[in-house]
């Protein structure tokens, strides 16, 4: 089906890599206009080049900004409106991982950093969009990407789990508050995914220093679900990893009018690893 997002204008955060990048391309292929937001300029420059090669440049504008900064969140909305005349979709991927620290060993600075990005940042970019949607009576779709960590306390360290659980509750609250205004708020819960953060050479050694790594890493899922899913074609070295295209497909559906009757719903895209 083509043109599923014709007439949609979206902000995609975390658009420079991974699931955000895959979703940006999926949106462009469905004729959505996109403001691609990321806090790393080099990633956005690479994205622009790839988009140009595919012939989608007319429907993309990039913005180097930080979701923890109110002015940057407001600026992303301003760019969408000034460039494309409106805004009716927020797809929020930007986030950070913790270092598998347990409750007894988590450092204040790591807790504050993760909460600021994954929970407070989610609130700030959502608020910036709502401040445009509401006075302009925009019927909108807000897609907040949380994690199966929002429901599985054993999939990462304490800071990450708390932040994603909070973001999931935030989405539910917003769905209740603004569904009557025609603003739908749904979430995607990815399963294990090799993000750019996990592939950062500086991340692994620090994560492995915490005792939480032995408790959580590679074992924090429903056992029957894990044993079943390990037979899948996407498994590499016994690590279950989602493919960004599967996440992007869900994001297209939630942004489209096909999901018009969905509000406060969760798309868990994890290959079944959280079965049970």
TrEMBL record:
Cited CDD domains: SDR_c (cd05233)
Key words of the record: Oxidoreductase
Pfam families: adh_short (PF00106)
SUPFAM superfamilies: NAD(P)-binding Rossmann-fold domains
Family: Belongs to the short-chain dehydrogenases/reductases (SDR) family.
Name used for this protein in its record: SDR family NAD(P)-dependent oxidoreductase
């Amino acid at each position: 089906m083509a043109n599923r997002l014709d007439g949609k204008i979206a902000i995609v955060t975390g658009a420079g890599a991974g699931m955000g990048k895959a979703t940006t391309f999926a949106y462009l292929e469905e004729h959505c206009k996109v403001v691609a937001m990321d806090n790393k300029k080099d990633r956005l420059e690479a994205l622009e080049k790839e988009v140009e090669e595919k012939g989608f440049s007319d429907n993309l504008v990039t913005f180097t900004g930080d979701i923890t900064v109110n002015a940057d969140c407001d600026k992303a909305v301003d760019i969408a409106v000034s460039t494309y005349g409106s805004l009716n979709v927020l797809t929020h991927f930007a986030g950070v991982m913790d270092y598998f620290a347990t409750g007894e060993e988590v450092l204040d600075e790591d807790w504050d950093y993760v909460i600021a990005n994954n929970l407070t940042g989610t609130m700030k970019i959502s608020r910036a969009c709502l401040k445009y949607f509401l006075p302009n009576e925009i019927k909108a779709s807000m897609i907040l990407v949380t994690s199966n960590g929002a429901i599985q306390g054993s999939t990462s360290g304490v800071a990450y789990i708390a932040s994603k659980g909070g973001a999931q509750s935030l989405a539910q609250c917003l769905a209740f508050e603004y569904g009557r205004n025609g603003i739908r708020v749904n979430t995607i819960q990815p399963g294990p995914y090799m993000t750019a953060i996990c592939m950062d050479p500086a991340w692994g050694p620090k994560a492995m220093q915490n005792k939480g790594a032995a408790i959580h890493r590679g074992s924090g899922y429903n056992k029957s679900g894990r044993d079943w899913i390990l037979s899948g074609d996407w498994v590499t070295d016994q690590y279950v990893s989602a493919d960004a295209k599967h996440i992007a497909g869900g994001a297209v559906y939630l942004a489209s009018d096909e999901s018009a009757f969905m509000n406060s719903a969760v798309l868990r895209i994890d290959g079944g690893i959280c079965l049970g």
